[in-house]
């Protein structure tokens, strides 16, 4: 077993339910005495907080600067992740470099974002909780309804970028993979919270 095998990442559109699934995974591990560590990106470290300041419009930054901040936050965060993995914990992470590829490449070149992230390890398992743009919008609760169409159009592009990211990291021809370890699992996010959870738990054999 490699060090990154127990590194599990959940990805999805805003409102796809990754946070709910992480709550359930952690509760399940705790109930069963399985050591685990829950985390998220952007992290709560100082660079991650800078990312949130930009995302939440308390600060402004060039789009390339933001992409660099996400990548720098990841570099620091990975030290924390690695040390938890070395302790033997499962590490469950809400979003990872696939989010950078999906979101930052809305504004800058996909290859540029890829280049910023190409040296980072692939997680042992990446779960892409797939749900339609309409469902994820409904789950976000119709906030900012004035911008809803615009937001839906944006999420549609994010979904397309996720596909480009997965094609780069998990090509059918593994020789061409940026990092040939790890596995991508597509989970049907339209099904119930329990069904999604059961799929993830059974794939991880937890
Ligand atoms: P967050 O409050 O965690 O929302 P969610 O519950 O939807 O994950 O916000 C994370 C936001 O940050 C989300 O809109 C995606 C964005 N993001 C990026 O743009 N690039 C990245 O590399 C990461 C990790 C997140």
Please describe the structure with a list of short key phrases separated by commas or semicolons.
binds thymidine-5'-diphosphate; 50% helix; five-stranded parallel beta sheet; 206 residues; 13% strand; Rossmann fold
Give a structural overview.
The chain is of the alpha/beta class. It has one domain (3-204): P-loop containing nucleotide triphosphate hydrolases (Rossmann fold), CATH 3.40.50. Helix content is 50%, strand content 13%. It contains eight helices and five strands. The protein has a five-stranded parallel sheet with strand order 2-3-1-4-5, sandwiched between helices. α1 packs across α8 (193-204), α2 (46-55) runs antiparallel to α3 and α4 (97-103) packs across α7 (148-169). The longest helix is centred in the middle third of the chain and has 24 residues, at 63-86. It is globular, with a radius of gyration of 17 Å. The two termini are 16 Å apart. The model has no long low-confidence stretch (mean pLDDT 92). Bound molecules: thymidine-5'-diphosphate. Residues 14, 19, 40-42, 55, 70, 94-95, 99-100, 103-104 line the site of thymidine-5'-diphosphate.
User: Oligomeric form of this entry?
Assistant: single chain
Q: Helicity level, as a percent range?
A: 40-55%
Number of domains: 1
Please outline the major beta sheet.
Answer: 5 strands, parallel
CATH class: Alpha Beta
Query: Which sequence of SSEs, written as H and E, runs from N to C?
Result: EHEHHEHHEHHEH
Question: Could you give the distance between the termini?
Answer: 16 Å
- Rg over C-alpha atoms, rounded to the nearest angstrom: 17 Å
The CATH architecture can be given as 3-Layer(aba) Sandwich
The beta-strand count equals 5
- Bound small molecules, which ones? thymidine-5'-diphosphate
Question: Which structural class best describes the helix and strand composition?
Answer: alpha/beta
Q: Give the integer mean of the pLDDT values.
A: 92
Helix count?
A: 8
Provide the spatial order of strands within the biggest beta sheet: 2-3-1-4-5
CATH superfamily: P-loop containing nucleotide triphosphate hydrolases
Q: Which spans of ≥5 residues are poorly predicted at pLDDT below 50?
A: none
CATH fold annotation: Rossmann fold
Strand content: 5-15%
